[in-house]
Amino acid sequence: MTEHDSSLDAIDRRILRAMQDNARLSNVELSEQAHLSPSQCHRRLKRLEELGVIDGYSARLNPEKIGLGVTAFVSVSLGKHGESPATRFAEAVQGIPEILECHSVSGEADYLLRVTAPDLKSFSDFLMHRLMAFPFVESVKSSIALECLKRWKGLPVS
């Protein structure tokens, strides 16, 4: 399968939309929403998993309810460019649980991170003593999220 496979038909898309809305649907419930028999629906779902269209299953947690009251977006610039600092940075972020996402970006910064922390003091400690402690990190700029107006609920499956 290519990065974007147009071989997904309307039934595949119904299955994907339903699974993004509620991945805990039983196969019978999913088959009803997809307008398929349970066995056909199960085969389609397994195919979507095998193709990697469905990347995995997880629960969306409310950060505030588990004590993570601060979300921030952090732009990171590396001091030296090239393969070694970029590789070292990519490896380093994998082991840091506060970093929820890390994207290589174009523009002024090299990376954009989505970070969470219990409070501002914890976030400051993370920035000063963990992220900026890496010798290849030249600068960071952060923006604290004041309010989440829309939470991620899934990809738009047309």
TrEMBL record:
InterPro entries: ArsR-like_HTH, AsnC-type_HTH_dom, Dimeric_a/b-barrel, Tscrpt_reg_AsnC-like, Tscrpt_reg_AsnC/Lrp_C, WH-like_DNA-bd_sf, WH_DNA-bd_sf. GO terms for molecular function: sequence-specific DNA binding. GO terms for biological process: regulation of DNA-templated transcription; response to amino acid. PANTHER family: LEUCINE-RESPONSIVE REGULATORY PROTEIN, TRANSCRIPTIONAL REGULATOR AZLB. Residues 8-69 form the HTH asnC-type domain. It comes from the Bacteria. This is Lrp/AsnC family leucine-responsive transcriptional regulator. GO terms for cellular component: cytosol. Keywords: DNA-binding, Transcription, Transcription regulation. Pfam families: AsnC_trans_reg, HTH_24. The keyword Ligase does not apply. SMART domains: HTH_ASNC.
